[in-house]
Amino acid sequence: xxxxxxxxFGYILAEILSETNLIKLIGDRTSGxxxxxxxxxxxxxxxxxxxxxxxxxxxxxxxxKEGLIEPTDLYIAILASNLSLRVMYIxxxxxxxxxxxxxxxxxxxxxxxxxxxxxxxxxxxxxxxRRYRGVDTNSNKRIKPDFSGKALKNGLIKGLxxxxxxxLRFTPLFMLVVFMLDSGISDSLALSPLLKxxxxxxxxxxxxxxxxxxxxxxxxxxxxxxxYNYPMRKVLGCMFLGNGLFILLNESWAxxxxxxxxxxxxxxxxxxxxxxxxxxxxYNILLAITLLKL
Length: 294
What we know:
About 80% of the residues lie in helices and about 0% in strands. By secondary structure, it is mainly α.
């Protein structure tokens, strides 16, 4: 479930950052990133992803609505920022939680996941470098933060208005998701015949079916698999397959699509969903099949 409190906070924070000129200050300090292949107006996005991806999307959405960027600029910046998101996952979750639980297999898991983010970032940044060739990335304006009561008030009001607009667009789709979960439709979608063709035993299938609904809960089963001396490649294969199916059958439509639909125009939301969730799930599933068939 996407927390409306969290979304509202993200909108308010994004608007306050904008009204107080802090987002411009971050953009000025990160303007050199534009030379790598990111639109000059979107250079704060990778840094914001390290703190809160929702704040990053709120800022990008505002720029898109104001006509300061095009959808393609958005796609390039967001896909390139996935590397920042992976770094956030590493220091917030993988190293403090997963490493003590699964040991060295965590390092292989991190390495193979971040490989995809590196490749994706490299490709989109190459596209961006050609797209923004000759664009001036330097600002001659001296930016000063504005912490006046008026700026803070404007940021609060704009943030509340933006979150209300989000709620009006988000609620209908979210109610559909709730209906699908309650009616059991999502359960039938999760029963993939793919599992029966990969020579998986009952414990491996239990891991994958659990991971479809909660990868973090499934990691405990991975610990059990290691205690039963399962080959590392098989455990990794199950982990990647579970993550890929989780993104495809759960996260993409239950969390990502409602959020994107509430913050971006429909066409942009659908394309961004495919680029973010579709490519990631495809990589995870293909890598899993490769590992399991070795």
